[in-house]
Amino acid sequence: MRLTKLIRFSGIGIAAAAKSAFNQHRAHKYLVDSLLDQPGIPSKIAQLLAMRGGLNSTHATFPRLSIEEIRDRISEQSPSLAGAIESISDRPRVASLSQVHEAKLFSGERVAIKIQFPGIADEIAEQVDDFIRLAAHSPAKAYGFTEEVWGGFLREKLLEELDYLGEARYQQEFGASIRTGGIIIPEVYERLSTKTILVQSWEESISPGDFSASRHSLELVHFRDAAKLMVEMLAHSLFQTKLIHCDLNPGNYGFRTDRESKTTNLVLYDFGSMQRLSPERVSRLADLMTHAPDRVKDGWRENLLALGFDDTRLQHIASFLPKIMPELLRPFRDESTWKPTSWNPGKTMDEILGAEKWWFRTAGPPWFLYLMRTLQGWHHGMKLIGEPVEVAGIFRKFIEQVPAAVASTEQAHQITNHGTSDLMPRLLLSKYLRVKVTEGRETVVELELPAAAIENLPDFVPEDVAQKIITQGLDLRMIADELLRHHAPQGDVFEMQHGMRHYRVWLD
Questions:
Q1: Burial of residue 341 (number of CB atoms within 10 Å: 0-12, 13-18, 19+)
Q2: Cα separation of 59 and 46, whole Å?
Q3: Arithmetic mean of pLDDT, 11-18
Q4: Most CB contacts within 10 A, which of 268, 272, 468, 506?
Q5: Tens digits of per-residue pLDDT, 381-434?
Q6: Closest Cα partner for 394 from 333, 352, 344?
């Protein structure tokens, strides 16, 4: 995004905030619908927001390419496909990076043709740069967010989604490894595909939302089987294929039912966003999802370090790990039948950690974010199906085939901290950096940040206030450095009046 786009998205956010004063649900829907209309990262953010708010993320948007433009792109980029098409639908499904058209080949086969939006690669590169830059200068920086680590990873993963031949290979690999009946992976037509056009077999299915709405007309067995298939798909991905689908939004999978045979199939689409897991990561995840960590004094920390978590940040919440981790992993560890609506990991984190939850979120390596994205999409689908299922029992069958973890805590610590930033290695005497701005009797701003945020104090002070501080002979950079040199002792950092507003910044 360049300046005009940033202004546009700021306008969307302001409008959504204004609407929330009257109706929070409508404001959420407005924000989701507005972002869905923007290709690239905004659409992906909208899909995540929609799943959190129980909204539709597959609403009908207008095609971004006309059928004439689609035909021209196919002729230009895949002449062999152009010569094979007998007919093509002019009513596409519009996604964040492409639009998909159903077509019939002269051979009689029905196929789905995914055509990438022109110029989307440059758009994505700009969006990643801008979003990462904004995040790197936000309070997230105080928790260890670095533009170098996260920016490089996200840029690589998002641009990877634009290589449709790479997606085809992921799709074929995943499909070839499936040993669980009932899961359907469309067949790739590799000879007709290119880096920007993917051709695959047309596989009918009911969207998760429509499947959920058909509860009154389908027998219960269909929903029970659908729930089991979703669990088996996730367990298969983690522990057999070691390749997880990281974009399980409702537009990328569906269900196929046969009323006569009372069977249900799960159809998976869009393998552009995938994450490969090393054997070490798989064995550690297996440990976390069973009772293995209970056998050692610090099993939670050991496994998290081996997965790439940063120990410096984990130390801030180390005493909470025995309480947090079983709750976050409850579906996979609880031997009783699990109800999807009973699990709310975000609420659990808020209740146990409050603002300290950011230490956990930023302690994880970038690849772990994609695993969380997978679990969020999976959980959303399980809630739509609405049937209780014995997740732990199904997972145990897959986990039993995984070799035990072998890396020691010391080895994991060395791997985790190799080359990491020294942003927060020091022991601090304060826990929080607090900012409060009042105007008369009204509190205008109130922030609670980790004490380590004092290092970035100049970034949090508005420019006009910073100028006023300078005129008083104070230097925020020197103040921050001096406080850190003395391990951030409790007490006021500065307090001042500027116009009608009173500013206070302190450590406690």
A1: exposed
A2: 11
A3: 39
A4: 272
A5: 999 999 999 999 999 989 888 876 544 444 444 434 433 333 333 457 787 788
A6: 333
Structure token digits, residue 234? 């996730």
Please state the φ and ψ torsions of residue 291, each to the nearest 5 degrees.
-95, 10
Please state, in angstroms and rounded to a whole number, the distance separating the CA atoms of residues 11 and 34: 10
Residue 418 tokens read as 């190799």
Rounded distance between C-alpha atoms, residue 460 and residue 51, angstroms:
32
Q: Taking each helix axis as running N to C, give the angle between helix 391-399 and helix 220-236, from 0 to 180 degrees, rounded to the nearest 10.
A: 30
Question: Two tokens at 395?
Answer: 């997972």
Domain extent listing, the chain: 3-53, 120-159, 205-425, 432-507
501-507 sheet: strands from edge to edge: 442-450, 432-439, 501-507, 491-498
Residue 213 has pLDDT above 80, yes or no: yes
User: What b/e sequence results for 190-224 when a residue is b if at least 16 CB atoms lie within 10 Å of its CB, and e otherwise?
Assistant: eebbbebbbbbeebebbbbbebbeeeeebeeebbe
DSSP assignment of 363-400: HS-HHHHHHHHHHHHHHHHHHHH---B-HHHHHHHHHT
The residues facing 255 across adjacent strands are 206, 266
Find where tokens 């984190």 sit.
Answer: 349
Q: Are 392 and 332 in contact (CB under 8 A)?
A: yes
The vertex-353 CA angle with 507 and 308, nearest 5°, equals 100
pLDDT tens-digit readout, 325-378: 999 999 999 888 999 999 999 889 989 998 888 888 888 888 998 899 899 999
The residues that bridge with 123 in the sheet, in sequence order, are none
d(CA 366, CA 434): 28
What digits encode the pLDDT tens for the residues 279-321? 889 999 998 988 766 665 568 988 999 999 989 889 989 999 9
Q: Which amino acid is at 133?
A: R
Q: Is the dihedral of CA 421, 423, 424, 425 positive or negative?
A: positive
From the list 119, 94, 107, the residue with the least C-alpha distance to 43 is: 94
- Supply the mean pLDDT for the chain: 80
